[in-house]
Amino acid sequence: MTIELAKPDYCIADYFPHCKKSDPQIEKCFLDAVESMRPRLKSGIPEVNVPALDPFTVPTLKLDRTASNLRLKATLRNMKALGGSNFKIEKFKLNLNNKYLAEVRLSIPKLVVAGDYDVRGSRILTVDINGKGKLRGNFSAIYVVAKGLAKPILKDNVEYLQVDKVITKVKIGHGHIALDDSDSPAAASSAATFFNASPGIVLDILNPLVEETTAAVLKAFLNKILGGIPIKDILTDETNTS
C-alpha cells in the first residue's frame, strides 16, 4: 500500500508548501503555506494523508515508565483531542545545509481529551492507581518545542523524506481530569481528586512521559504525510523548477 502511494498521479494543491531551497525566506514560505492550509487542517486533507486535527485521534497508546515518584503501566485507547487546530506557531527554523533539520515552537490554548484507559500496578507519589474506564481531561496553556531531523529515502526511484528523530519539550499550564470506572468508582474518584488538587505537581512528574509520547505521535504524524509526497513536490530548486 505504501509503495502504491509513491506513484499517484495527483496534483498538489496550491495551498500546500512549494518552497525553493535557495529562498532566503524559506521559513516564511512554509509558515504562509501552513496558514493557507489551516481551514482544511481541522477536518484533514485526505489526498495528502493529513489526518484531522479536530478531533485528533490516536487509536492506541501504551505507556510504560518507572522513575522517581512514578510507576506507570497503562494502555489508552480511542483517544481523541479537540482544540489542536487552534495552534499558533511562535517560532520556526529550518536548516537545509546538507541535512533536513527543523525546529518549531508552538502554543495551543486548550485541549479537551477523552478516551478509554486501562491502568495496572501504577503509582504516582504515594497514590496507587489501578483501574479501567473512561478518561476526560481539560488542559490549557500548552507550549511545545519540537526539533526534528529527517533523511531522504528512495521508493521506486523517487525521493521522499522520512523523519528520523524528534525531540520535544512540553509545558502544560493547567489540567483537570475526570475518571469513570464502574468497577472501582471510589479509586477512580480518589485518583482524579488527587490530580485536580495539585495538577502542576502531577504534570511535572509525568512531563518526561508526556514529552516522549508527544515526540512519538508527532514523528508518526509527519511520516504519514511525508511518505506519500515526493521531496520535489515540496522543496524545489533551480534545477527542477523549469
From TrEMBL:
Sorted UniProt keywords: Biological rhythms, Signal
Gene Ontology annotations for the cellular component aspect, listed alphabetically: extracellular space
GO process terms (BP): circadian rhythm
A family per Pfam: JHBP
InterPro entries (alphabetical): Haemolymph_juvenile_hormone-bd, To_sf
Gene3D superfamilies with a match to the protein in the record: Haemolymph juvenile hormone binding protein
Similarity comment: Belongs to the TO family.
Descriptive protein name: Circadian clock-controlled protein
